[in-house]
Design goal:
Helix content is 76%, strand content 0%. With 245 residues, it is mainly alpha-helical. The chain starts with 6 loop residues before the first helix and ends in an 8-residue tail after the last helix. The chain is built from 11 helices and no strands. The chain is globular, with a radius of gyration of 19 Å. The chain has one domain. Helix 4 (45-65) crosses helix 6, helix 7 runs antiparallel to helix 9 and helix 9 (148-169) runs antiparallel to helix 10 (176-204).
């Protein structure tokens, strides 16, 4: 006997949103490389396309790593159709794209140095996310309780820390040591933001007394605060070394 799919469930198929997010991120990466990449990159469409293709592989690699941090594309989004997970996962993709693009900003002797910069930024970002997850268990609020506010809040934090660490790795190549030094010098605010987010998370997570926190007050507002802090820090840092005029 055959069964018909529930039309409401069909409408809630959310996997396509991640596909749109990836496509938009790759377009943004290509545009950013065309505007802010090294001279030999931004003047060569083939180089821009090649690095964008590597960016796509970079994002696909993240699909293998993110489940270790509590979010699964196949289970939480495709199978469970979890809106909160879609939002948080989308934030992770955007952050990865930012980190990859920023690692390719500035002049350097070869593409390997660009990949090193992007890789260092991604490792630092993943480490912060791991600490956040181990401390707050935010993934449980997102995947098990399907709390929309937690998904929005996590998305804002992931993008904000991605912006800060991405900016910290942008600029002309000097050496591996200098890249790591710049990451700590300009990216320490990402760690400070994590310290801020920990008590916020303990206060606004779902609880017995408040099983359904307001997605605006407990989700959008903290996310805006995180992104505003990141934006203010980027404004404070200003132009990176080698940024095209």
């Amino acid at each position: 006997m055959t069964t018909r799919s529930n039309p409401a469930e069909m409408k809630r198929d959310l996997g396509w949103i991640i596909g749109v997010c990836i496509g938009a991120c790759l377009i943004a990466v290509a545009a950013a490389l065309h505007v802010w990449g090294a001279v030999e990159v931004r003047t060569d469409p083939v180089a821009v396309l090649g690095l964008t293709f590597v960016g796509a592989l970079w994002i696909l690699l993240a699909f293998k790593i993110i489940p270790w941090l509590g979010l699964s594309f196949e289970f939480d989004i495709v199978d469970c159709k979890n809106t909160a997970a879609v939002i948080a996962f989308s934030g992770a993709i955007v952050a990865i794209a930012i980190l990859y693009a920023c690692g390719n900003f500035g002049e350097g002797p070869s593409y390997l140095e660009n990949f090193f910069s992007a890789g260092v930024g991604c490792v630092a970002w993943l480490l912060l996310w791991l600490i956040f997850e181990m401390t707050t268990k935010v993934s449980l609020s997102i995947t098990e309780q399907r709390d929309l506010a937690s998904g929005v809040r996590c998305c804002g934090l992931l993008v904000a820390t991605g912006l800060i660490l991405g900016r910290a790795t942008a600029g002309n190549w000097a050496s591996a040591f200098a890249t790591i030094h710049d990451l700590f010098r300009d990216g320490w605010v990402a760690g400070a933001l994590l310290v801020l987010a920990l008590p916020v998370e303990s206060f606004v997570q779902p609880s017995k007394s408040r099983p359904f926190p307001s997605w605006i007050n407990c989700g959008v507002v903290p996310a805006i605060i995180y992104l505003s802090i990141a934006g203010a820090w980027l404004w404070h840092l200003g132009r990176w070394e080698g940024m095209p005029q």
